[in-house]
Each structure stands twice: as C-alpha cells, then as structure tokens.
C-alpha cells in the first residue's frame, strides 16, 4: 500500500473549525469520496462511518478519533485527516474533546490493510511524543510525512 496515496495532501485539513461530530464526519466522508474511481458518493461513505460509530465510538482517547470502515464499492484504501483548532464532543471514554480525526476506508476484501493502518495509527498515537508531533505540525506536508513514517515503519512491540 502506498501511504502517500492513502493520505493525499488535499485530504489533510489542519486548523479547521467544526462544531459537531456529525459535521466532522460529513467533511471526512467528502474527503474520502473525493477521487474515488468507483464514483462513490460522500453520503454512502458517511453512512459507513456513522454505522461504525453506532457499533462503538472510534475516539481512542487523548483527543483523537479514528473513524474507519470497509466497503464493497471502495476500489483502493483512502485516508483523510482533520485537525481542529478546538475539540468537539466525540463520545470518548476519557471524556476529552476530540481535535484530531484520522479517517480511512478500505475495500471490503482488504481486512488486513484495514487492521494494519488502524493498529499502527493507534500505537503511534498512544505515544505522547508522536501526538505532540502531529498536533504541532505546521503544514499538511509535515502531517503527511509523519503518517508516511508511522505507517511505513510501525513501532516494534519490544522497542523499550
């Protein structure tokens, strides 16, 4: 999987202002549907993201949510990132407002890609240093470079 293609620059929005989880998921779905080869609509992707949220909140704590899903109409993995200037209620178990949303959708037949991306993101974002790096990045290019680094070189389980 080409990580640069997974997170194109136009799918990385930093210092955005949205007032609700619903609005963030709408914008995220629009980004994920942006250049789908199958002509997928943002509405269809939004429904997939909402259905996943109904199964369980995708907020992982520390102000981060990773909405995601698999879809039979998606031809290749797609990712997007939205960083908010002010956090919103996402229903996180730690009750912290969410201000970093990393979403992705993968083809239904690629569960291994789904799990690899999800696991690597969750592990890196559990690190205070990695969280600080992505929250302080001043450009979409820097954010994407961090994502490429993390997803190309997942942390080792026995790193310490």
TrEMBL record:
SUPFAM superfamilies hit by this protein: Phoshotransferase/anion transport protein
InterPro entries: PTrfase/Anion_transptr, PTS_EIIA_type-2_dom, PTS_SugarTrans_NitroReg
Listed PROSITE patterns: PTS_EIIA_TYPE_2, PTS_EIIA_TYPE_2_HIS
Gene3D superfamilies associated with the record: Mannitol-specific EII, Chain A
Short name of any one Pfam family annotated for the protein: PTS_EIIA_2
Domain of life: Bacteria
Signal sequence interval, chain numbering: none
One GO MF term attached to the UniProt entry: protein kinase activator activity
Domain PTS EIIA type-2: 5-150
Protein name in the entry: PTS EIIA type-2 domain-containing protein
Source organism of the structure: Halothiobacillus diazotrophicus
């Amino acid at each position: 999987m080409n990580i640069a293609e997974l997170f194109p620059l136009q799918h990385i929005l930093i210092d955005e202002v949205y007032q609700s989880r619903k609005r963030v998921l709408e914008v995220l779905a629009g980004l994920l549907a942006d250049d789908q080869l199958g002509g997928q609509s943002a509405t269809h992707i939004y429904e997939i993201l909402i259905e996943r949220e109904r199964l369980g909140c995708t907020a992982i704590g520390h102000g981060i949510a990773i909405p995601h899903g698999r879809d039979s109409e998606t031809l290749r993995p797609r990712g997007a990132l939205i960083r908010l200037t002010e956090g919103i209620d996402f229903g996180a178990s730690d009750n912290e407002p969410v201000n970093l949303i990393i979403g992705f959708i993968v083809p239904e037949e690629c569960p291994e890609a789904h799990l690899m991306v999800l696991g690597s993101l969750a592990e890196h974002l559990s690190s205070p240093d990695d969280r600080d790096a992505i929250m302080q990045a001043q450009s979409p290019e820097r954010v994407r470079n961090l994502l490429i680094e993390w997803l190309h070189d997942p942390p080792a389980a026995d790193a310490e």
